[in-house]
Amino acid sequence: MSKQSTLFFGAAVVDLITYTQRFPAPGETVSGKGFHKGCGGKASNACVMSAKLGLSASMLAKIGDDIFGRELLDNYKRFNINIDNVLLTKDIFTATAAICVADSGQNTIVYVPGPTNQLTPDEIIAIEDQLFNNCQLFMATFECLPETLLTLLKIARKKGVRTLVNGAPPFPNNPLPEMYQLFDTFCVNETEAMIMTGINIESVDDGRKSCRELLKLGCGAVILTMGTNGAIYMDTNSDIYVPIQEKVTPVDTTGAGDAFMGALAYYMVCHPSLGIEEQMKRSCFIATRSVLKTGTQTSYPDKHELPRNLFM
After folding, report:
1. What pTM was computed for the model?
2. Would residue 206 show up in a list of annotated catalytic residues for this protein?
3. Between the CA of residue 116 and those of 77, 111, 140, what are the distances in Å?
4. pLDDT digits (tens, 9 = 90+) for 231-269
5. Residue 134 CB partners (closer than 8 Å, separation 6+)
6. Which of 67, 77, 109, 80 is nearest to 258 (CA)?
7. 3-state helix, strand, coil in the chain (%, to 5)
8. Structural domains of the chain ordered from first start
9. How far apart are CA 220 and CA 14, in angstroms?
10. Of these residues, 184, 205, 258, 302, which one is catalytic?
11. In this predicted model, what pLDDT tens digit does every residue of 77-118 receive, in sequence order?
């Protein structure tokens, strides 16, 4: 792939998913109803979602030189994702996520980052010249060392590449203060926003307060996703509320937020004239489709499975 329009950065993870009636209490063993192994990682999920919609995408990550790592590489190739910047290491096993999905559709996740937290600023600087060629958007998550993300954001700013950052999973401490000023668009959910602002979000008005606090930190724009309460977009000139257009009974919510991010990246690059409100509405619709099937990337709809008007 000689041309990339979006570079995704974060974790490449093998998901180990167990299905059960309910979550076990501490110290309790419950009987599972099924097991699935798949490819995941928040940034990888978003990358695959965008590729399924037709975006020319490239992945930046570090994985183990092991059987799980080879499965991840094969998966990227399946979706025609550029893997020139997927780095291999023999020092540590590929990242894993142990996911438990209850009958309610809700999930719990234990994430072991492995090589993801070994990707250093020096390694980024060594490949700086090849990272953002023909790139229109840099989409990143917090699945990394803060200083590595900061290095990439500075390079993106220097090269005039727009940034879309998902603040998940939250860093143990708040991001480096200067990092916020390099977020052209910063997307978080209620839990992540509460950790960063201290505001407990129980209503749309609470969400707006949280967005205003994040803008004060220097973000260009903020998107707050609130599950069934919809989403908010806010910048210095706009305050847009996007309600959920349809309510569904979820089968598996794993990766729905990542599906939203991947769809949003697709619309930002491929349909910029739609405007952010319409881009978010369509991204929410696609993310909602993903909760109707089990699995993570396997639940994401292909372009041909979606209504044609989403691409007009």
Report:
1. 0.91
2. no
3. 20, 11, 13
4. 999 999 999 999 988 788 888 888 899 999 999 999 999
5. 3, 4, 5
6. 109
7. 40, 25, 35
8. 6-11+42-93+116-311 (3.40.1190.20)
9. 33
10. 258
11. 999 999 999 999 999 999 998 989 899 888 888 889 999 999
